[in-house]
Design goal:
The chain is mostly helical. The protein has 15 helices and four strands. Helix 3 packs across helix 9.
Amino acid sequence: MHPERGALKVAAESAMDGEEKIGPCDGIEASDTGPEGAVEVKERKPTYLHEIVWRNVILMTLLHIGAVYSLALIPQAQILTLLWAYLCFLVTALGVTAGAHRLWSHRSYKAKLPLKIFLAAANSMAFQNDIYEWSRDHRVHHKFSETDADPHNARRGFFFSHVGWLFLRKHREVIEKGRTLDLQDLLADPVVMFQRKYYKTAVILMCFVIPSFVPWYVWGESLWNSYFLASILRYTVSLNVSWLVNSAAHLYGNRPYDIHINPRENTFVTFGAIGEGFHNFHHTFPFDYSTSEFGLKFNPTTCFIDFMCFLGMASDCKKATKQMILARKARSGDGT
């Protein structure tokens, strides 16, 4: 989904916003001598040092160790706790898919204030950077996909596009190209700006406190089980299914709409990321609110948005026409 950018924000202003360093000898080099003894200077491409953000590496490692330990707690947990953890997973996923991705990154539909507030809260539960930063990086990903300006460029391999991009400082191109985008719609959205301003507090409450508190307080689950299952395990799983959109859905699958781009249709990712695995379609028609030509089929996020439309909370859903889809398949699809 990239990510679209399915990233962990480990501090208010993450070190991930820094630039990679350029070596002292980059830019130009001198050959021995040119005509009449003049020194010949020729340009060469700059070399970027991959500066590791150790804080992210350590925190991600600890998080995943905690998630593995959480698996051992499942047999002793109450059924209600497991159901609650799954419900929190669904809310977390909607905060990314229906919220940061389809609503704020692509403006593929309109939402009324109550729905925006719910999606912003759900996005805080996802803890993948605030809506403004997530949407900014996702727009960069779409405009400069599979280049150095793509935050999780899949041409650098599965590990990099899945999680490795969070372990390194951003490529200079990501920062420079990101500054060229028009983000006024995000800056003008009071819900987006409110969440950004209070993001640390919102994350603590939505990602850790509330998921852990409810099972302990309401039906007497141990606080230990509540924390590790509804917070740590749920959070780690939600991160990885989001990252699979950036990695697996850019590397494995068919390309029925545009064979000339990297994103693929990946059924496994579709199930895990509640409808975000129709990625070749999405990169071909990024304005489509359903991210798929199949509507509600295998697409819980689309079901949610349609239900919100039924309730009057969402409207103006953009959709690629059947004729448009068929024409694109015939012109640039792989025939699948």
